[in-house]
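Moderator note: this is an archived Q&A kept for reference. The question asked for a predicted structure of one protein chain; the sequence and the answer are reproduced below.
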Amino acid sequence: MTDTATTSADPIVVTAIFHPAEGARDAVLAALEPAIAAVHQEPGCLLYAIHDAPDGTIVMIEKWESVALLDAHGTSPAVAALNVALKGLVAAPTDVTRLVPLPMGEESKGAL
């Protein structure tokens, strides 16, 4: 078995799950739109893609070149503006999970 720990220089995948308040889904999406455009321009952003989930949450799947660049994203103006824009629109805090890849199978299909 190999060590699954990631180093600060390894790519890192993140999920961020947004919980829109009742009736606020469209407003949450409107708040996310400018943030997505800004984040796509941040150093190290390889993927920042939004998805609808069957339970009504909105799921962001992210991939960053490194932990250091992800950490910088967390303190970026885009994230700060998004946090302000989401006030009163979400029913619960955003669930953010950092994932360590476990590549298997074909290289092009076995990891994000």
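Archived answer notes: Strands lie at 12-20, 45-52, 58-64, 90-99.
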